[in-house]
Amino acid sequence: MSTQAQANPSGTEMAISDEVMIGLTGVNKWYGQFHVLKDIDLTVLTGERIVICGPSGSGKSTLIRCINRLEEHQRGRIVVDGIELTHDLKNIEKVRREVGMVFQHFNLFPHLTVLDNLTLAPIWVKKVPKKEAEEVAMHYLKRVKIPEQANKFPGQLSGGQQQRVAIARSLCMSPKVMLFDEPTSALDPEMIKEVLDVMIELARSGMTMICVTHEMGFARTVANRVIFMDKGEIIEQNEPEEFFNNPKSDRTKLFLSQILHH
Amino acid sequence: MTDMTENSVVPGTRPDLPPPVTESGIIGWLRHNLFSSWWDTLLTLFAIYLVYLILPPFISWAFINSDWQFLPAVELGEKAPEFSDCTSGGACWIFVRARFGQFFYGFYPDAERWRVNLVLIMLVGSIYGLLSERVKHKKPIAWFFFAIFPILAFILLYGGLGLPVVPTQQWGGFMLTLTLAGIGIVFSLPIGILLALGRRSQLPIVHLLCVLFIEFARGVPLITILFMANVMLPLFLPQGVEFNILLRVLIGVTLFASAYMAEVIRGGLQALPKGQYEGAMAMGLGYWSMMRLIIMPQALRVAIPGIVNNFISLTQDTTLVAIVGLYDFLNIVRAGSRDSNWIGTEIEGYVFCAFVYWVFCFAMSRYSMRIERKLHTGHKR
To answer: Phi and psi (nearest 5°) for B380?
Structure first.
């Protein structure tokens, strides 16, 4: 399997296979009368790093939340790693085990220590023995550079530290895909960098990632594709250089001018 | 020009100074809490006056001028104690002393009372073991308390396995109150949790059934439920089937309390942000794991004040079983002071009764505050 080879890529080379990890075809979703997603077609290959941007209300968060079924789509097909998302609960839980998600507001469990936050899902979902789960958790805490916080509660950490814990928590399930839903939007400016650094490091390790973010520097550094959404549609997608230097549609140009020169 | 030069400090080097005297210490406290305005001062003085009016006479009645000792003739067994033995003009506590056994055990036969004591010792011991921070190995205690103790307590209190049967008609007093409150508390919490989850369920039938039950139980007074348990339940049962009245009352009280519990827990569930559910679901946790590991621990913590409030009011509501003919603690004290030997001891009876209920409920309240503090992990949501 070519995915195995990418687990440890040499240097900063970010290999992309030709294997499809996520496929969306003709996905439509409504909130009541409101049509949030319109005919979304998107294919994500293993190892791809995709950044989705767009104005608020454009459906970008909804789109990635459909990929692990936090939101239900009403029409079209979503297939993640060969598993189609339907009403079948078994499939939904299987997909969620393979897809990690990082939220804007971290959504750590405040009643558990950092270490318990990290080991909970491996122990209860994957039935990993406690000791082994703790070793894995410490490994990822070291990777996000806060192993010394393991026995604190989330409420005692700064926003940036909490978000790094949240990333480590997802990684403990050894997911095949990571979804990021505006991971730095709720952070103080001083803390954005420490989170982005972790995400960049993760991208370099070959993780398949979809990030909803407005951090354009991040997009330039790691993304191999940037997608612009507006009013529930994918307006434009391209490689970062082309996307930023040479946007095709007027809507994209307007958006970029607003976020780059504010 | 201000005297900037005189007071100026290099920014970033200002030391931490203690607050002014008027803000801290006893004087600060008094000023803040008792005499912060002329209106507060007036209220404070009025409250002190009220305490002066009520407290000294009560202390004099209850402690200074009161009878505690039996007459020598009573101690020798030559005569039975009675109200006229009290001569001080204050509280006649020998009434409580003389009747204590009945207040505690009801009509439970003297020779079998050790069984009640044994159950009580096991109960207090395992509750202490479960709640105390000094006891480390709680698992065996929990197994004993939730699996073995109920069966053991039933055999001891009711009889069987060679022990003579004591029919529930002979149960009474504090022991009966404790049985009712204890079983009500132990069962109403899990049933309440299930009802609260059911009410928030997306399955329409489960939701409807839970809403119907909760709204019915909350819409009907407990007295009505007790009457119904007493009068109506036998109508639905096949002829000849005897259904113990204590059991009927227990079912009624427990279901009634569960409905209130469900609403308190629902409040706790609604206080949790949606992100907690999403965080748990995104990790691949199923519904029951999510509820057990993530949602309930937090929702119950939020709901502790309401839950303990329900425990306390449940304990006090058990006094209503008097109307279906059970002699709980309050009823047996009342009956005692209507005895022809003790006419005139109602006040002593009620004060004693109130004191015992108060100690019991206050202990629960204090303990719940300790749990709240302990579970506070300094988190902001």
So the answer is: -100, 145
> What residues contact A114, with CB distance under 8 A and at least 6 apart?
A108, A141, A146, A149, A150, A151, A152, A153, A154, A157, A165
Helix ranges restricted to H, B220-343: 222-231, 233-236, 245-270, 274-282, 287-290, 296-317, 329-337
Tell me what ipTM this predicted complex has. 0.90
B-chain CB neighbours of A111 within 8 Å are 297-298, 301, 375, 377, 379
Distance from CA of B296 to the nearest CA of A (A): 11
Please give the backbone phi and psi of residue A16, each rounded to the nearest 5 degrees, phi first. Answer: -120, 130
Of B279, B298, B378, the CB nearest to A107: B279
pLDDT per residue as tens digits for the range B338-347:
888 888 788 8
Give the type of residue at A76. Answer: G
User: For testing the chain B interface, which of A83, A109, A174 should be mutated: the one with the most B CBs within 10 Å?
Assistant: A109
pLDDT tens string A214-239:
899 999 999 999 999 999 999 999 99
Nearest C-alpha in A relative to B294: A109
Q: What pTM was estimated for this model as a whole?
A: 0.83
* pLDDT tens-digit series, residues B198-240: 999 999 999 999 999 999 999 999 999 888 888 877 777 777 6
Asked if B289's CB is within 8 angstroms of A107's CB, the reply is: no
Write out chain A residues lying below 8 Å of B376, CB-based: none
DSSP designation for B19: P
Handedness of CA B317, B318, B324, B330 (dihedral sign): negative
Q: State which residue of chain B sits closest to A157, comparing Cα positions.
A: B379
Give the integer Cα–Cα distance in Å for B294 and B277: 8
Q: Is A159 on the interface with B (CB under 8 A)?
A: no
Domains of chain B by residue range: 88-108+166-272+303-375
Q: Quick one: tokens of A156? A: 């005692």
Compute the nearest-CA separation of B2 from chain A (Å). Answer: 36
A34, containing H or E segment: strand A34-45
Query: Any CB–CB contact under 8 A between B203 and chain A?
Result: no
A153 touches chain B (CB under 8 A): yes
Task: From chain B, pick out residues whose CB is under 8 angstroms from the CB of A107.
Answer: 275-276, 278-279, 282
Q: Looking at domain B88-108+166-272+303-375, does it have CATH number 3.30.1360.180? A: no
Q: pLDDT digit string (tens) for B48-63?
A: 999 999 999 899 888 8
Over residues B330-345, the mean pLDDT reads: 85
- Using an 8 Å CB-CB cutoff, list chain A residues near B379: 110-111, 153-155
Both ends of chain A: CA-CA distance in Å? 46
